[in-house]
Amino acid sequence: MDKLLNHPTSLKVLAVMIAILIWAVVHIDPETSPQSVTSNTDTKVIEAASIVVEGLDTDKYMLTAMEPTVARLVVEGRISSLLAANNDDYVVKLDLTGVESGIQELPLKAELPSGIREIEISPRIVLVHIEELETQTREVQVLTEGKPADGYLIGESSIIGDTGNVVEVTMPKDDYANLGMLAVTVDVTDASSTVVNKRAKVIAYDTKGSPMNNVTIVPDTLTAETKITLPAKEMPIQLRYTGALAEGFSLVSINTTQQSVTVNAAQATLDQMAMFDGFILDLSKVKESGEVLVKAEKVDGVAQVTPEEIAVNVVIEATEQRAMTNVPVSLIGLAEDKKASINNSSNGRINVLVKGAATLLQRLRTPDVKLSLDVTGLAEGTHELTIDAELPAYLQVTENDQYPLTVTVRISGTEELDALGEPIRNNGGSSGNTEPVPGNGTGSAGNSGSSNNNDPPEEDDEAVQATPQPSGNHGNGASGDDSIDENIEDASP
């Protein structure tokens, strides 16, 4: 052993080992050497942890303000626990159980994941404003945004569906003083037909038109529609009819209480229309007196008519005939240097047979029957002409062998005498510049003349015949698909 210690090499090795030991003693800190014991824990800071409110009686109260709305949270725990949790797991709660309305200061409480403890929460107290709620029933309006297609107008807007336009509004009681309206919005941009918004959100607006907060609306969506229309114009109606009554019946009157309708069409079309004549009554469907509903027919250029259907009161009676004697005939267009006679007669009168409803025939007087012959441009000589007749509405002349409508007209110079040696006179005639009297030319119905129904009956020499209507003749004078214009105001006798 002594030899080993005295050996030079052994001494060198021993010196190195002692040097290493001394270096270790000098450089190792005894206070940090146990670091391995506490290295599994750490701290974490959540700068903006959300504050969760609980316990508030939301049927009666509403939290309208809280300051601040987030809290700073410092926690400590195992590193593994801190890494496993995310920020949403660190909850700061505000318990409002039993709290009533008003401004109050209340404490916060942290709720942390397992294995983590709270070191600090800031602030620990928050200021809250709690208001009492009130529920009211209110109506909802419809607002529009955008502009429809060129030439179209925004029409009526409404809430449709089973729920109607009434909703329940819950908000702080004091805020009702600022509530302006509840409304949904329909976008009508470039629309040319009705626009429907099936899930229009109901929004509360204050008196200045700004959306309001802290409002609960039930239901919160509704179905709204806005009509997009062409320009409108109100105009009188002219009732027309087509077809024919059943054989043996005639019209007494057609009238309606609907005096006008609203017509939607392009402005150029409206400017050209003075009345609407799209209501056409089909007489073939009228079997008895009473009210008939007539729908508006499509008219070129007209998009809509309001109302689309009108009630028409129709009165019919059995057809009869009446002979009118010595009815004067007016000559139209006779030159000033000409004279004329009818059927070689100097008095210019003929007998005619009129058919129609008995009520109208009883009111008929000779002045109501306007007969005329157009002799414009006829040369001197004898001419066979058909008489034009104008009668009150729903009456017409008819002819048979006893009452023909074709007469012989003799035109001569002013110096010519008739068969009796008397100068030929123009009875009831007019000069060549006289306007023609409107008539149907064949005695058909639809003559636009009107009788004076208020005149008392007059005694005259007219022969009256009350006989059934001959087969094949219809009392209204309309047959096939022909339609006759009748202004409603003139429809009643």
Automatic annotation (TrEMBL):
- Coiled-coil regions, chain positions: none
Q: Which domain of life is it from?
A: Bacteria
Q: Annotated region Disordered: where?
A: 420-493
**Which segments show compositional bias classed as Acidic residues?**
482-493
User: InterPro entries, per this entry?
Assistant: c-di-AMP_regulator (IPR053154), YbbR (IPR012505)
Q: What PANTHER family is this protein classified in?
A: CDAA REGULATORY PROTEIN CDAR
Q: What is this protein called?
A: YbbR-like domain-containing protein
UniProt source species: Paenibacillus septentrionalis
